[in-house]
Amino acid sequence: MKKTPLAETHEKLGARMVDFAGWYMPVQYVGLREEHNNVRNNVGLFDVSHMGEVRVKGPKALETLEWLTTNDVAKLNDGEAQYSLLPNDQGGLVDDIIVYCLKKNEDYLVCVNASNKDKDFAWMTKHNKGADMTDESDKWGQIAIQGPKALELCDRVFGFKVSEMKPFTLKAGEFQNHKIMVATTGYTGEKGCEVFVEAAGTAALWMTLLEQGKDLGVQSIGLGARDTLRTEMKYSLYGHEIDDTTNPYEAGLGWVIKPAKKDFMGKALIVGKKEAGLKQNLVGFKMLEKGIPRQGYSLFSFDNKEIGKVTSGTHSPTLDEPIGIAYIDTEFAKEGTEFLLDIRGRKVKAVVCKTPFVTK
Amino acid sequence: MAFHIPEDYYYTKEHEWAQVDENIVTVGITEFAQDQLGEIVYVELPEEGQKITQGQTFGVIESVKAVSDLYAPVSGTVIEVNMALGDDPSVLNDDPVNEGWLVRIEMDTEKELANLMRAPDYKKLISEK
Fold this sequence. Notes:
The structure holds 2 protein chains of 2 kinds.
Chain A: E1 2-3, H1 7-12, E2 16-20, E3 23-28, H2 32-41, E4 43-47, E5 52-57, H3 61-68, E6 81-87, E7 93-103, E8 107-112, H4 117-126, E9 132-135, E10 140-146, H5 150-158, E11 170-175, E12 178-183, E13 192-198, H6 202-212, E14 218-221, H7 223-232, H8 267-275, E15 280-287, E16 298-300, E17 306-316, E18 321-329, E19 338-343, E20 346-353
Parallel strand pairs in A: 1-3, 4-14
Antiparallel strand pairs in A: 2-3, 4-10, 5-8, 5-9, 6-7, 7-8, 10-13, 11-12, 12-13, 15-18, 15-20, 16-17, 16-19, 17-18, 19-20
Chain B: E1 10-11, E2 16-21, E3 24-29, H1 31-37, E4 40-44, E5 51-52, E6 57-63, E7 67-71, E8 76-81, H2 84-87, H3 91-94, E9 103-107, E10 117-118, H4 119-127
Antiparallel strand pairs in B: 1-2, 1-10, 2-3, 3-9, 4-6, 5-8, 6-7, 8-9
């Protein structure tokens, strides 16, 4: 199993470690629910060092990224970030990503999912339009700091006002002589940032954040709570809501596709499917009877026709009730539509609801 | 972490415990199991009168993160179900070995107990995890 620069730190802090996509990662420290609530109420630290970073530089950097991604990279100025998609040539998705602009036109950092890193890098390299492309994943540790008190903690530790940065921006700095880049992005729906730090400085930064944030109630948070937090926001996760066959419009990600502005990989297939009419939509739902939805469970209409599949489901710690995300045939996708969920052979009522499940 | 593993109980390799009182067997999950599961939020149990078979699933426990089957330590008939767990499944986290019992079974045959572990073997099993 691969280890992040924080593996020993997690062990010392008493985390329960698991194999996550080939990485030795903390699933929880004191308990999923407590960690989850602490991120909603105070501040939590996440080790996201297993995510991959691809550096795209040179005179062909912008042209390459415009071709490889669906969003409008040309719009990005120095220090701005953008959620985007890496489409394949079959009308599906290689991954969802964040593109960080370090220097307009010529220097970008692309952050990709841990489980997809090698696949993404191979894909990007294969379809490179002449940029200088390197896998910098081993160079960077990454820590996400999330929660209503996250920015106060960041202001104390990073020596500049992270709290005054706009969402989806990036600022370079230093921590104990290690390069850092602080990005106001995240995956929990809370305020906060994701910090890229040179690998050798990652453990020291983690311990400093814990120390400096004691009075703010900072806690280390495992992957278990990361998943319940993102599910409450209906944020997509590769392998659940997204895969190589996903049409991004059906996944509700049409807002990061800019067909009017540029050509990109697989554009005709992706847009064509939308023009032909979407067959299904990604929706949030709640249970009307007892039971907890889980990935892979089937959805049925009341006349017993299979109409969809669950992509993610859990008991929401914030709402203290079960919630789920599912692809459902378009005619059933409207908020308030009731359907049946097959929970291991037992069909129970559920209803399409408004998302995000948790609003601030 | 030290778990409370009563000496006079029997154990399955899937982490259920069985307390035997003549031919009545009370069944639950061990402290180790609840610790592995994390916060338990839902329990699906059989109804009174239902027949269950040793080694077969007889119910389901769901934690925030996962679904786990429950395996019957012995064959027999369910004579009582812990209804309190329906209202508050967190009892299973707080006190799995007492208040968090799941069902009581009228056992078909004592012979099946030979297929279960006693406390020292069960302690050894979880120490290897």
